[in-house]
Design goal:
Blueprint lengths: L3 E4 L3 E4 L8 E16 L1 H4 L5 E9 L9 E7 L4 E7 L4 E6 L5 E5 L6 E8 L4 E8 L2 E2 L3 E4 L7 E22 L10 E6 L8 E3 L5 E5 L8 E2 L5 H7 L13 E4 L7 E5 L10 E13 L10 E6 L4 E8 L14 E5 L6 H5 L2 E5 L8 E13 L6 E5 L5 E3 L8 E5 L6 E2 L15 E2 L7 E3 L8 E2 L5 E4 L57 E4 L7 E2 L12
Parallel strand pairs: 26-28, 29-32
Antiparallel strand pairs: 1-3, 2-3, 3-13, 4-9, 4-13, 5-6, 5-13, 6-7, 7-8, 9-10, 10-11, 10-12, 14-25, 15-19, 16-17, 16-18, 18-25, 19-24, 20-23, 20-25, 21-22, 21-24, 27-31, 30-35, 33-34
Length: 535
């Protein structure tokens, strides 16, 4: 079970670091303390390394006073991130060590903050980055100890507003840096069907906070009503709260709640998930008298996340916040397991007072693939591999060898030259592999300009212009009429359709540019090293 200590009025507001319509945490105060903290129930016990990533935003006007943004601590010592209005910078400090300044933060802009805090030795260390740019390590003298609590926000009277989003945390040192993540919230699927488990009508909807608060419980099970009652984001609390309750006690009585899904995009992968149940009980004050169990099912196997036990449930009449039952779930590893997710509630041997839930969610951490440029060089005598993870990535190939190469382009042309090799290209981003033994054929799928080297004496004019002996010249596909090649005269390349091939000879010691931007075709390029050829 995970709970948070709260000061002030933390809020869930509509905003998202990674686009779309979603929610984030907002801390906002006017001359007051404002923070929210998690302890070992989230961090785990006996942990001395924490690896984290989250997004930070200063909406509207940046704070006028130094504002603590984050604190991660042992029982007695900590590191902090502060916002310093002098220089408008984020700063890091470990215990009482040197304050390390990071970059300036703009208002109304999301920043990705990543870090690794280590308290396992006499010198505590903080490795950190802002928008994937490494910052100077912060250190401080400490006493080796276990981590105790993570806090967002400030503990002094300030006027500040700060937003946080997509917070992911690991206790494995090697996970640093966690990378660019987004956290996707799954809710009960209103288009699905709640499955009854065990005795019929044992699981029902409660209305207006249940009987003790003046509400009621439905007379029977109804899937659509239950799904509507537990789908609010954030959950509706208080006198108008609706939810699901286990009306008939029994360790075999429960319900299976289908969850919405998310379609992984190219380059994205699942790195973790967490099930969260906002609990309820038909009693005014928090009590240990009732029990509830939470399980997860991924289409193949079931996992008990919170075994039937006490959970401090109440209908909040006492004024305290709801008890949240939360646990990490390792069963979501693929699109298939994500699509099949069902959260199962109930299994209580005790229904006095009635146990239940206001809302059910699952948060899934998604690693977002980066878009980047890749450059690859080839000595002509070794095998090379080029793998692309995601996004449209431009590639450059330079080759000093003399072998023939396969290169993916968009058109097929034909050349009457005396020797040839095929240049084949496709127009999409896929994993690339280039193998090169100095004289063997290579395949390189790509979608961008390719540069080949050539050192020639003399030249062939193919709408290229003039040059001089020994000078590299560019090769461009411009010819539209066929011309024959006999040594060094002008030549044209016939291409009248989409199923032709082009052959040029290449000594691999000159510099050719080939620019193609049409449909997928096969090409062969080879050069006799006696002229500049344009294709």
């Amino acid at each position: 079970m995970t709970s948070a200590n709260i000061a002030g009025s933390p809020a869930i507001v509509a905003d998202s670091a990674n686009g779309g319509t979603d929610y984030c945490l907002e801390l906002s105060s006017s001359g007051a303390t404002e923070n929210i903290a998690w302890d070992e129930n989230t961090l785990g016990t006996g942990k001395r390394v924490a690896v984290f990533a989250f997004y930070l935003k200063l909406p509207g006007t940046r704070p006028a006073a130094t504002t603590r943004l984050v604190k991660l601590e042992t029982a007695t010592q900590a590191f902090v991130f502060n916002y310093n209005p002098t220089g408008t910078k984020i700063e890091a400090q470990v215990v009482s060590g040197t304050i390390v300044s990071g970059p300036s933060l703009n208002a109304d802009q999301w920043y990705l903050i990543q870090g690794r805090f280590n308290t396992s030795a006499a010198t505590f260390t903080l490795d950190w980055s802002v928008d994937k740019v490494d910052q100077t390590q912060a250190t401080g003298a400490g006493t080796a100890a276990d981590l105790h609590a993570w806090t967002f926000g400030w503990n002094t009277s300030l006027t500040s507003t700060v937003r946080y989003d997509d917070f992911v945390l690991s206790v494995t040192s090697g996970d640093y840096p966690l990378g660019k993540h987004k956290v996707v919230r799954l809710s009960p699927d209103a288009d699905g069907t709640v499955a009854e488990i065990g005795t019929a009508n044992s699981m029902r909807r409660y209305i207006n906070n249940g009987p003790v608060a003046g509400g009621s419980v439905d007379g029977s099970f109804n899937s659509a009503d239950i799904l509507a009652a537990i789908s609010d984001t954030p959950p509706t609390l208080g006198s108008s709260a609706n939810g699901v309750t286990q009306f008939t006690q029994g360790t075999g009585n429960a319900c299976g709640i289908p969850m919405t899904s998310y379609t992984l995009q190219p380059g994205e992968s699942i790195t973790g998930s967490r099930v969260e149940v906002c609990s309820w009980a038909d009693i005014g004050a928090q009590t240990l008298a009732n029990q509830l169990e939470v399980r997860a099912y991924n289409g193949t196997s079931e996992t008990v996340l919170f075994a039937a036990g006490s959970y401090f449930g109440s209908n909040l009449a006492s004024g305290l916040g709801p008890a949240w039952i939360c646990d990490m779930y390792t069963g979501i590893t693929s699109q298939a397991t994500l699509d099949a997710l069902v959260i199962r509630l109930g299994y209580s041997p005790d229904n006095g007072p009635l146990p239940g839930a206001h809302a059910v969610y699952t948060e899934v951490a998604i690693l977002i693939g980066d878009t980047a440029s890749i450059t690859m060089s080839d000595s002509g005598s070794a095998a090379d591999n080029l793998s692309v993870v995601s996004g449209a990535i431009s590639k450059t190939l330079s080759d000093s060898g003399s072998e023939s190469e396969n290169i993916s382009f968009n058109r097929t042309h034909m050349d009457t030259a005396s020797a040839g090799d095929n240049l084949s290209v496709v127009v999409q981003t896929v994993p690339k592999t280039l193998s090169d033994s100095g004289s063997a054929a290579e395949d390189l799928p790509t979608t961008v300009p390719i540069r080949l080297g050539e050192s020639l004496i003399g030249f062939d004019g193919i709408n290229v212009g003039t040059s001089q002996s020994g000078t590299a010249c560019g090769i461009y596909i411009v010819a539209v009429t066929p011309m024959a090649e006999v040594g060094a005269e002008n030549e044209g390349i016939p291409f009248t359709g989409n199923d032709e091939s082009v052959t040029l000879s290449d000594s691999a010691s000159a510099f050719d540019d080939i620019a193609i931007s049409v449909a997928t075709i096969q090409k062969i390029l080879s050069d006799s090293a006696t002229a500049c050829d344009g294709a």
